[in-house]
Amino acid sequence: MLIVRKYGGTSVADVQNIISAASNIAKTYSDGNRLVIVVSAQGDTTDELLAKAAKISGGAGKREIDALISTGEQQSAALMAIALRAQGLPSVSLNAAQSGINATSAYGNARIKSVDPERLRFELEQGNTAVVAGFQGMNKYGDVVTIGRGGSDTTAVALAVALNADLCEICTDVDGVYTADPRIVKNARKIRVISYDEMLELSSLGAKVLHNRSAEMAKRYRVPLIVRSSFSDAEGTLVKDVPYMERMYVSGVTVDKEIAGVTLLGVKGEPGGAYNVFSLIAREGVSVGVITRTAGTGSGDISFTVVRSELGKVLGALEENKDVIRYTDLKYDDRVAKISVVGAGMESTPGVASGVFEALYAVDIGVKMISTSEIKITILVDERDTEAAVNAIHDRFFAMGAHDEEKR
Amino acid sequence: MLIVRKYGGTSVADVQNIISAASNIAKTYSDGNRLVIVVSAQGDTTDELLAKAAKISGGAGKREIDALISTGEQQSAALMAIALRAQGLPSVSLNAAQSGINATSAYGNARIKSVDPERLRFELEQGNTAVVAGFQGMNKYGDVVTIGRGGSDTTAVALAVALNADLCEICTDVDGVYTADPRIVKNARKIRVISYDEMLELSSLGAKVLHNRSAEMAKRYRVPLIVRSSFSDAEGTLVKDVPYMERMYVSGVTVDKEIAGVTLLGVKGEPGGAYNVFSLIAREGVSVGVITRTAGTGSGDISFTVVRSELGKVLGALEENKDVIRYTDLKYDDRVAKISVVGAGMESTPGVASGVFEALYAVDIGVKMISTSEIKITILVDERDTEAAVNAIHDRFFAMGAHDEEKR
User: Fold this and answer.
1) Distance CA A83, CA A22 (A)
2) Does the N terminus or the C terminus of chain B have fewer Cβ atoms within 10 A?
3) Hey, do A2-173 and A252-407 end up sharing a CATH topology, with the first three levels equal?
4) What is the DSSP string of A237-294?
């Protein structure tokens, strides 16, 4: 098999971690696989470099920040190649330009446009294990650009696509994707197989194990992904095209606590009403989470969520533009948490939503806002009820044994 | 003027140093000059990266070591560009590939083959100050190679040649080239103007202020060089084509203490005698310093110097090959120091050598070995006599006032 495997920052944080990862890579290699390794910067390297730049100037340009911090991954790549050679594995480190990773020009937040895998193919043909610096690309000016937080996951998937790899492995500090955050839900269980769509929902809802954009790219090109631990041999979570029959109807429960809910009362349903609201908020540079508007009541209420730290900015803008938006009243709640239940099987399984509400009712928790899509139910609850609510919902769908039965 | 200016590792060692260098650059810029800056890695960065690699593997390949340590200069370049922008100076950092620095493939010790200054010219035309990562180039495989210790000096001179710059400045932690090491000779004085040849002799004899190869390249392409302090405005030393009339007949005195002298007795003068000796030593990987053989005596004695730490290896090889080399006896002295007197005016000024011997005789120091070239006299003395010998010679040629008079 041709495998592209990514190691995150904690997985290469110190010399001992690098050596241990190299020994795992050597094992996979000796099992008859060819490998391309993608590495993040060591531990806090990126933050340390940023701190140094901040000491020099509060307004360091993005181009120079990219030139600076991209060296962190290049160092990891060289160190990993050195560790692999010490294991007897012929190996070369490659930076973004050498790996043929072409990206847009947007310094600090570029997108990978294409990968020209000529050099990578050459190294693989020579029997070398290539170690690629993650998180970066080369733009049309020949400058190094970074591709945003979590970018090394995206680097790995993009290389897997370009090389037509059999598998892309994301090695991280957790051993897979869980049905809920194990720090909040003690019964949380590792998911063995999950569909791209579910993974996407889970990762965009804050399950930090896999970056959103990489899940999206994996889905588009049907790259089989495995999320697993760098530090153990435990089986991870496989992300792939899951045939309907195999699907769980609920795959996970996620929580986001840093949320505020805003409701505008009396916004008329005339054309442009919603547009006025959300174009205003977009101009403030604020991303809106869930938006709900009940159909046909004529009352004209619109609710939405924003990240809590941006609430003040949003309220200020709304009040200043009351004449344009023409609402009758403005309410907000900055003590709410967003809980989402995700499952690709949901759309064809009646009763999931009612199961959620039933579970909450049983522990006497009220639901402040509801929004559902085909594979997701999102609710807002009082922040103080977060843990009880998540556990109640999780237990409802993942009670011991229930999950495996439901999967059939 | 178009100026290429290099800052060494101590000159960019911390954030404060970088900011202060940036402020000097901004001043030069506002005086109406255009600038290309070459930087070394910060302080101990290179050694720290090497230590990390050594912890992973004792036998890290040179290719990966180059990929690893070249990031140090790239970081300095980005940080300096950030500091310049904070001074209001438009600035971009460039790595070796971006700067068009093409080098041989010899990882760890490459040579600059050519510089394609297209990108540098573009940045200068845009009004940008370009900050180039020193010490590195790109080889034909697109890999980063480093160009050996002191390489950033060579980078600076190579860029000055390619850009046809008016001046190349080497900013370092000393404020110029001295007539002798001020730590040994208390009367040592700064040289204001020196010829390329003299600079070359001084730097190859261990005056650490300017790397040998960069002096060589500056001479070949007639690039005017200034060696001066990063930390003060003190006038430095100008290295250029010095017309004969301006030449000092002695420009400096240097010392090398880590030396051993070896003498082979009775090596016949037949063709191949010297070849046998020195090809043997070259095969051991040892560089030979001064070689002397007195002409026409028929005794067949050959003396030479080697770095003291390699003496054992050399003696072993000579003893093992006594049959091939056919010498009658082997003597060595590992307690000697090498003192050299350099001056381009020497060849046309009678009495310099006798001045050296007179000075030593006056302080009762014997001369163990003598070798002279057109612009250099080298002697070996007992190691214990080093300081007294250097000071005696220095005072002979640089007594207060004597130097300026001699210069006319």
Assistant:
1) 6
2) C
3) no
4) EEEE---GGG--S--EEEEEEEEEEEEEE----STTHHHHHHHHHHHTTPPEEEEE--
Residue A124, token pair as written in the block: 């693989």
Cβ-defined contact of A52 to B95 (cutoff 8 Å): no
Contacting residues of B for A18, CB less than 8 Å apart = 56
CB contact under 8 A, A64 and B82: yes
Report yes or no on whether pTM surpasses 0.80. Answer: no
Residue B403 has pLDDT above 50, yes or no: no
Residue boundaries of the structural domains of chain A = 2-173, 252-407
Higher-pLDDT residue of A291, B260: B260
pLDDT value of position A301: 79
**The CATH number fitting domain B2-173, selected from 3.40.1160.10, 3.10.129.10, 3.40.50.150, 3.40.190.80:** 3.40.1160.10
Residue B81 touches partner A, C-beta closer than 8 Å: yes
**Hey, is the C-beta of B50 within 8 angstroms of any chain A C-beta?**
no
Q: What is the ipTM of this complex?
A: 0.74
Residue B401 has pLDDT above 60, yes or no: no
Rounded distance between C-alpha atoms, residue A154 and residue A203, angstroms: 13
The answer for residues whose C-beta is within 8 angstroms of residue B268's C-beta and 6 or more apart is B300, B326
Burial class (CB in 10 A: 0-12, 13-18, 19+), A268: middle
Average per-residue pLDDT for chain B: 88
Angle value at C-alpha B88, between B85 and B91, nearest 5 degrees = 40
The CATH superfamily of B252-407 is VC0802-like (3.30.2130.10)
Q: Which helix (H) or strand (E) holds A62?
A: helix A62-86
* Residues B69-101: tens digit of each pLDDT: 999 999 999 999 999 999 999 999 999 999 999
Neighbours of A313 (CB within 10 A): 14
Contact (CB<8Å) B57/A97: no
H/E element, B93: strand B91-94
- Helix, coil or strand: residue B384: helix
CA angle B283, B287, B291 (to 5 degrees): 110
pLDDT (0 to 100) of residue A295: 64
Which residues in chain B have Cβ-Cβ distances shorter than 8 Å to A62? none
Of all residues in chain B, the percent with pLDDT exceeding 70 is 91
